[in-house]
Amino acid sequence: MGLPWPRLWLKRLWVLLQVAVHVAVGKVLLTLFPERVTQHILSMGQQTGMAKNPRFSHDNWVPTFFSTQYFWFVLKVRWQQLEDMTEQGSLAPNCPVVRLSGQTCNIWDFMQG
């Protein structure tokens, strides 16, 4: 909502290409060098604390990297981040917010005049 529509779609297309290349290269590397890629993913997991959970087995979640579900999830998150951005002088994004009463509404609902 914050970026003008033509520019938003150009940025979405650019993000689509970035994510597609990221997933394709990751999939090729995971196929050619599975031990090295798994080691790298596990080291990233240790930096974030994900590997500290004893119920997480890397055999369960490493193969999901660079999958179709991974592609759509990353694309959806990156596109949402685009919609949450704005440029100086343009409209603020119409992000959802939750009132203290628990009711969900959007920021633009609070605009006056």
UniProtKB/TrEMBL annotation:
<dbReference type="GO" id="GO:0016323">
    <property type="term" value="C:basolateral plasma membrane"/>
</dbReference>
<dbReference type="GO" id="GO:0042404">
    <property type="term" value="P:thyroid hormone catabolic process"/>
</dbReference>
<dbReference type="InterPro" id="IPR000643">
    <property type="entry name" value="Iodothyronine_deiodinase"/>
</dbReference>
<comment type="subunit">
    <text>Predominantly monomer. Can form homodimers but homodimerization is not essential for enzyme activity.</text>
</comment>
<dbReference type="Pfam" id="PF00837">
    <property type="entry name" value="T4_deiodinase"/>
</dbReference>
<keyword id="KW-0560">Oxidoreductase</keyword>
<comment type="similarity">
    <text>Belongs to the iodothyronine deiodinase family.</text>
</comment>
<dbReference type="GO" id="GO:0004800">
    <property type="term" value="F:thyroxine 5'-deiodinase activity"/>
</dbReference>
<comment type="function">
    <text>Responsible for the deiodination of T4 (3,5,3',5'-tetraiodothyronine).</text>
</comment>
<protein>
    <recommendedName>
        <fullName>Iodothyronine deiodinase</fullName>
    </recommendedName>
</protein>
<keyword id="KW-0712">Selenocysteine</keyword>
<keyword id="KW-0893">Thyroid hormones biosynthesis</keyword>
<dbReference type="GO" id="GO:0042446">
    <property type="term" value="P:hormone biosynthetic process"/>
</dbReference>
